[in-house]
């Protein structure tokens, strides 16, 4: 990469690191409306004229959904709304950025950032049954589709075992009567799921004593679960795995002591929940070991202390290229900067163009910032400029 091109990349990369830092200060603030932090971010966006640089603008807005994976989410929706209002982002772009979070899309609609016309257009062209189920109250309220037409759409989109007309009608009745407020929780609405999330062991014991209960029962409510990992490709996860996701140590211990089934993949759910007691039990008693999937989950859910524990204490092996790959997937500019600096100072020869390219070519999706600037990056010769 020529010096001029390299300097251009460095200036843009430093801007993204600063974006990330200012954004984190807003999200991490204990204040509901951190005005000083808002002012700092908005001033920076104005100073660099963010909308005049399409690649930087795209990189910044793709950073926003990563906040949903943070352990701390105090007043998250309103904080994101404040930023989106400042940026004046078009509804089409909002749908694209937050397409995996129906709960937030609903919030943006109710707050007026997405209007009825755009919601109606998205509903009529959507190819996801979860989205149509979730927004069925709006579909009926605003007469976007007749019930007959909605059922016809859903029959085409649902797997064969679920596309029975009577079953769909029954689900839609439930949506009409029960879910307008509870769906905003963003997670499964079944009794057992709510009990596990609250780690209410007394209510759990009462629940399983009063009705038939399988210890390996699957929790599945894909229309309401906003986390795609927990949805597990609409296959659901076991009660044991669900307890891991929410750090519900008391219910986890009961299920574990009663030999609930689990797989190698199950261990990754403990990283999402971030409960060290659960992680240590799995570490000491599981027949499986934490692997690279746990590394990916720790990065995705921003469990950096656990990430350090996995790598430095449990000695989970992960190539540097894979670390960069996972950070690219999460648009984590600060961590990419850290890892490049770290290995540069150690003068590790494996930080090469080949490693960077491998990471980038495996980073599918909206990663244009990395692709455009790092394709010919000579990291060994230039990294000290970062």
From TrEMBL:
Origin: domain of life: Eukaryota
Gene3D superfamilies on file: Ankyrin repeat-containing domain (1.25.40.20)
Span of domain DUF3447: 260-333
SUPFAM superfamilies: Ankyrin repeat
Pfam families: DUF3447 (PF11929)
InterPro entries linked: Ankyrin_rpt-contain_sf, DUF3447
PANTHER family: ANK_REP_REGION DOMAIN-CONTAINING PROTEIN (PTHR24159:SF5), PTHR24159
Name assigned to this protein: DUF3447 domain-containing protein
